[in-house]
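Side project, low priority. Logging it here so it doesn't get lost.
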Amino acid sequence: MQVSLEQEAGVTVARAAGRLDFTAAEPFQKELESAISASDKGVVVDLAPLEYVSSAGLRAFLVGAKAAKARGVGFAVCNLRPEVQEVFDLTGFGRVVSLHPDRAAAVAALVGT
């Protein structure tokens, strides 16, 4: 699993690629928490290149959402592939994490435009 970070309109965009399984979940969670701590407006996680997410990976999103809420910044996920979207839908994570169809919509939601 690889994560790259970049800035867009004061929002940190984390692009997650590969497989978010048990092995990758903890490092990914730490990366998210660090990005949330350093961001002014919040974090968008772009999952376009993510191929798979396990229950351990979902936990990382839950921890990230809670950390963002505690800090008072936004947290959103975008560009879910159908197989990843299905996992989010089946587990109800769409009610826990703000989901957006694309990066532009997710960033706009966090900057308030």
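Brief comment: The chain has a mean pLDDT of 94.
Revisit when time allows.
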